[in-house]
Design a protein that fits this description.
alpha+beta; Aminopeptidase; five-stranded antiparallel beta sheet; binds zinc ion
Length: 373
C-alpha cells in the first residue's frame, strides 16, 4: 500500500528559512493499534534513517488488508541536529544554542498521587481498554495545556517548540519506537521498561537493558512512565494490569555510520515486533533469545589520568574481572619520563561501547563494559 505523506512545519530560522519534518502514515484496512517510529533524534545517530527507509519500502509492498491499525514513520525527525557539523564531525547530539541533550527535553504527564488514586478508584473494575482510553484522554488534555504555552507572547525555547511537534504525533500512540545508536561505537540492543520484557525480546537483539527510574525526560521515557505509574497505582489498589502500551529505544551500532549489520538487525527486529503485535500479517512472528539486564550492569570507564588511549579491547569482546581493558600513555609536566598506565575491568562482561577518540582528558569517556550475570 502507499503511505499518506504529510509534511509538518517545525519552526523558522533567522534567515527566514523554515525547518520541517515528514511523516509517512501506513493506515491499514483493519482497526488496530497505532505505532509511531522515528529516527535520528540525535543528529549524529543516522542509522535509523536507513532502517525506516527499508521499512517504508517493505510496507509499500504489503496490502492494506494485511495491516491492522496504523504505522507512522518519521525519518530525520530532528533536522536542526542532523545538519549540525563541527569540521568533519556531526555534533548534533546536543542543541548547540542551549547545550541541552536532544533526548532529555521531552514533556511528561505527571499526575499528582491524588489524581492518580482518584482515577484508579473510578476505573478499578473497568476493562483494560476502557482504562487505556480514559487515561489517554487525560494525557492529551494535559498536553493541550502544555501546547497552549507556545501561543503566549513570551514564546518558548527551541527544544520546547520542537518537542511539541514530535509529541503531538505520538502521545496518542500505543507503541513508540525511537531509533538511536551510540554516538561512539556500540553494540546493537534495546532499552525497555518494567513489565515489557516479552515485548522487548521480539526485537531479537542479544541484549536488552531495563530502565527502572523515571526522570530523564527521554522520548521513550516521557511517553511510557505515565502508563507505568498508572500500572503501579492499580497494583497498590490490589489489581494487577498490564496495559498494551510500549516504548522502546533501539540502539543500533555506531554514530555517523549506517552499519549494514545494524540496519539489518533493526529492520528485522521492527518487523518481528509488528508481527507479534498483530499489526502486520505478512511476517511470521519469530521467537528470540535475548538476555535481559538492568542498566546498572553498564559501567562507563572514564580516563583516570589524561593521555592517549591504546591497546583497547574491541567491541563485543568478553573480559574477566582484573583483565586489561586498555592502557593510557600519559605525559607530565614534572620533568619525568612518560608513563603507560594499565586499566583493568572491574567485572566479568563484554565490551559494550568504545569512545571514537583515542585521546582523553582526565575524566573523559573511554569505553563501557556490560556485566553479564
Ligand atoms: Zn541517541
Amino acid at each position: 500500500m502507499n503511505p499518506i505523506i504529510e509534511t509538518i512545519d517545525l519552526f523558522q530560522l533567522a534567515s527566514g528559512d523554515r525547518l520541517a519534518i515528514q511523516v509517512y502514515k501506513f493506515i491499514g484496512q483493519n482497526p488496530g493499534a497505532k505505532v509511531y517510529i522515528q529516527a535520528n533524534l540525535h543528529g549524529c545517530e543516522i542509522v535509523g534513517n536507513k532502517v525506516v527507509h527499508g521499512l517504508i519500502g517493505y510496507l509499500s509492498t504489503v496490502p492494506e488488508a494485511a495491516i491492522a491499525g496504523e504505522i507512522w514513520i518519521v525519518p530525520t525527525c530532528n533536522p536542526l541536529a542532523t545538519n549540525q557539523r563541527g569540521h568533519f564531525y556531526a555534533t548534533g547530539g546536543f542543541h548547540a544554542y542551549s547545550g541541552e541533550d536532544w533526548n532529555r527535553i521531552f514533556w511528561e504527564h505527571k499526575p499528582t498521587a491524588e489524581q492518580l488514586n482518584s482515577f484508579v478508584e473510578k476505573h478499578l473494575n473497568n476493562d483494560e481498554s476502557t482504562i487505556t482510553k480514559a487515561y489517554r484522554q487525560q494525557i492529551m488534555a494535559a498536553f493541550k495545556e502544555e501546547l497552549a504555552k507556545q501561543e503566549r507572547p513570551c514564546g518558548v525555547s527551541v527544544p520546547e517548540l520542537f518537542r511539541g511537534k514530535l509529541q503531538n504525533l505520538c502521545l496518542d500512540a500505543d507503541y513508540v519506537i525511537d531509533i538511536h545508536s551510540s554516538s561512539n561505537d556500540g553494540l546493537n540492543f534495546t532499552y525497555y521498561f518494567p513489565n515489557r520484557e516479552t515485548q522487548a525480546g521480539w526485537f531479537g537483539f542479544d541484549y536488552s537493558i531495563l530502565l527502572e527510574e523515571d526522570g530523564a525526560y527521554a522520548f521513550d521515557e516521557a511517553f511510557i512512565w505515565p502508563w507505568i505509574e498508572l500500572e503501579k497505582a492499580f497494583t497498590k489498589a490490589g489489581r494487577t494490569i498490564h496495559l498494551t502500551v510500549d516504548a522502546f529505544t533501539l540502539e543500533l551500532g555506531s554514530g555517523m555510520k549506517m552499519r549494514p549489520e545494524s540496519v539489518a538487525k533493526g529492520l528485522a527486529g521492527i518487523k518481528n515486533y509488528l508481527a507479534h503485535q498483530g499489526i502486520i500479517s505478512t511476517a511470521t512472528p519469530q521467537p528470540s533469545q535475548t538476555k535481559f539486564l538492568p542498566s546498572k550492569n553498564i559501567t562507563r570507564y572514564r580516563a583516570t589520568v589524561g593521555g592517549m588511549i591504546g591497546d583497547r579491547l574491541s567491541l563485543g569482546q568478553p573480559v574477566k574481572a582484573g583483565e586489561k581493558l586498555y592502557e593510557i600513555l600519559s605525559f607530565n609536566r614534572l620533568g619525568k619520563m612518560p608513563e603507560v598506565i594499565t586499566v583493568n575491568s572491574m567485572v566479568d562482561g563484554i565490551v559494550f561501547d568504545l569512545a571514537i577518540s583515542e585521546s582523553a582528558n582526565q575524566g573523559e569517556y573511554v569505553m563501557s563494559v556490560l556485566a553479564i550475570d
